[in-house]
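Chapter review: from sequence to fold.
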Amino acid sequence: MPSQQKQYEYLEHTADVKFLAYGKTLEEVFENAALAVFNVIIDTDKVSGETTREVFLKSPDLEFLLVDWLSELLYLFEVDEIIFRKFKVEEIREEEGGYSIIARASGEKFYPESHPFETEIKAVTYNQLEIVKTHDGWKAQVVVDI
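The token string follows.
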């Protein structure tokens, strides 16, 4: 039976939350980074997925694109009050002057009484941020300010 590749893992960090996200493709590592972020906030297994938001972003490089992607999802959570549980990155493309992402996030309306809040994330940081091509795909290291 083939081994299941890790989606993400949390790392030791003094005050914030630090994690590594993994993926066979760049798109998959962005999906798993988003999943790791939202699992800091809430247990995403307890969230359904009827509500979807499309995300289209452009950034000067991959690291900025990852921070912009995760920050946009947190913004949608705060403003539209949607807690996301599933992420599908259709495409990350290198373009003249940067990168773009076309993606979809699914979840449901956030109700504090039915969604026990675990940790509030203030921001996605550039601290220790890196995206690396590995022998079996990609990995990204992210630190979020809590």
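Two observations follow directly from the output. The domain at 8-145 is CATH 3.55.10.10 (Archease, Possible Chaperone; Chain: A; domain 1). Strands lie at 8-11, 17-23, 51-59, 82-95, 98-109, 123-124, 130-134, 137-145.
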